[in-house]
Structures are given as C-alpha cells and as structure tokens.
Specification:
Helix content is 41%, strand content 15%. It has 13 helices and nine strands. It has a nine-stranded mixed beta sheet, sandwiched between helices. Helix 2 packs across helix 3. The longest helix is centred in the N-terminal third of the chain and has 22 residues. The radius of gyration is 19 Å and the shape is globular. The termini are far apart.
Amino acid sequence: MQAPEIPTIPIAVRRKQGVRFGKDEGVQVTNDDANISKASAAKLGYYDDPFVQVFVGPNSQRRAPLINRGYYARVQAITSIIRSFLKGGLAGRKENEPAQIVAYGGGFDTTFFRLAQSGELENVKYFEVDFQEVVIRKLKAVAKVDSMMELIQNAQIKDDFSALQADNYAVTSGDLRTMNDVVQSLTDCGFSSSAPTLFLSECVLVYLEADDADAVIEWSAKNTERSVFVTYEQIRPDDAFGAVMMDNLKRRGCPLKSVTKYKTLEDLKARYLSLGFHEVQPRDMNDIGTDPLIFPLDEQRRVARLEIFDEFEEWHLFAAHYAITVAVKEKQNEE
C-alpha cells in the first residue's frame, strides 16, 4: 500500500498569485498545503474553524476523504491536549494561573483564534514563530479581518508585517536552526521561564537536522520550570509505506530529516527524556484514534456521517506513520 500523496498547488502558480517564498520554499509550501487540507475538512463539518478560509484564498480544494479524516484527527487530538493543559491537566497549571503557549513553526494555524473566540485563553499568552515570509503573509491576512483583530488585545503590528505584539498574542519571525535569535525574539515578546508553558510543533522539527531539532527541545526544557512539549510528526520511515512517504516529500523539496534518527515511538521517548523532560508518552495515530477521551463514541458517529469513507486499510497504514509525543517537565523539589 502506497502512502497517499497530498495534492499541491505548484509553486509557480503561487508566485503568479503574488506569493513570495524564501530559500526554504519547499518547507514553506507544506504550510499552504496543510492549510488547504484543514479548510477542506472544516468546510465538510469535521470541525469548526471560521478562520481557516482566510488563508486559503483562490486555492480552495476538496481533499480526498482519507486526507480530510487525517487532518481532522490531528486537529481534534492536538486541541484536546491543549485544553488539558489549559485546565491544569498537564504541567500543573493552577486555575487562572498565567500561562503561555509557544507554537514553533506556527504557519497559518488558527488555534489561537479558535480558542480565543471560545474564551479558553484567559490569562494565556500565545506565541508563534515562523519564517519571516510566512509571518508577513499571515499578518497581512489577519489585519484585514475585523473578527480576528478583535480577538487580539492591544495589537501592534510592525510596518513590514514581520511581527505582531499584543497582550495575549505574539507572532515573530525566526529560523529554528538559529535558536539564539528565536530566544531573543521570544524574550522581546514577553516569554516567561516561570510560567507554565506548552510548546507545540506540528510537522516542523522533523524537517530540521536532528541536532538542530534537539536544540529546540532541549532549550524548551531547560528554560522552563513547568512545561509540556507536544509534537506531531512522521515516524517509521523504513517500511514500504514509510519509504514511499519519505520519497514523496523529498521529491517535493521538503525531505524529512530528523526522522532518520528518531524512527520509532521508543526512539521518541528516549529523545525527550535525554533532553530534559521527565515524563514522555509517544503514541501513533491508530492508538490515539481509539482514545474515548479524545474521540468519544458520539463524536465518532458524527464524523462517520460526513462523507463516504471505506479506506480503512489505508487509514490504519497512514495513522501508523504519524505520532503525537507529549513530554512533560514538572517543577522539581516542590513542597
């Protein structure tokens, strides 16, 4: 069984639409493609996202049921973990205690806007870091939408749209391969090492060399007293499905790099433990898909009615090659 190849809008077409990519255009394009897939799932009713279409523009496409279900499962699981953190279920956040979320490679993700709209980010500051080209495109789009700007408290956007600073939200430009620069940008935006923090990386660190990705994880652990690091990325590159998955992405100019070192769930657990986290739980999406706390039975029934889906063998293969790792660091020697 071959890995599904997500359709892409050719880079040449995007350039004609006025899109400008940097030297890492292959990786940056994955942000656009993921957003189109999320918009497809949202439009069909898999989950509610009134903001995602803002970033799609003329490139809206209906994805195949397998892709829709994959992005729905990703959004549902990640959102569930974030809500657990916000309610004190991870990293020991106390009720209404000031906290923060840092999205590495935030791209066009709309999590901040969805959670702010539902009132779930009380006393939480949400940070995003991404390539400058991506940040500029995102902030230019956000600035035009009143319903999004109204959710940002005291927003200040740079004249060139390369950064946004607000009481509850910060978006800054940075390259995770130069972590010192990223740290300075986060500090300038008000990052606090003492506040309980959730770090989020969705198909981001896997595109970095293992040493660069490890540096991001290690800094995140060492520079927080209480934190949780949530990663969604590909695994198991060596079987037949994984080999095709690797080849697909390499041909698109965005090869998976660190997965060649951290191939399995066991590898991921050892990785985060060695880099400063105390408890680590990596699970593939097949395992997560059976978790009744994330996908209760009534939710499964609702999703089953959205569109015809009979690709169960393909789904299980696909889900076996994506994993979510939740790594937790608790404050030590706390009375």
